[in-house]
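Slide 14.
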Amino acid sequence: MHDHKIEIADLETRQPVAQIAVEGEPISLSVSPDGQYAFASSEEIDTVHIISLKDRKLLRSFKTPKGAGPDPVLMVNTK
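Slide 15: predicted structure.
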């Protein structure tokens, strides 16, 4: 959190396999139901980050309204 990074670990070895730098301090992390994406929120700067777990890279960050403090990130099935 304080390093402004999301760390991905191997589930079997429990060892880090990748670090992804993000703006702000990521507070919470949610994984999409299909396991392809992670959504991290940097509450103090009102920002949500979308991470590709397969590619281990930041795809996009977007600002939420000032003061929204996106924590946690919730996913809703719209089907």
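Speaker note: The beta strands are 5-9, 16-21, 28-31, 37-42, 47-52, 57-63.
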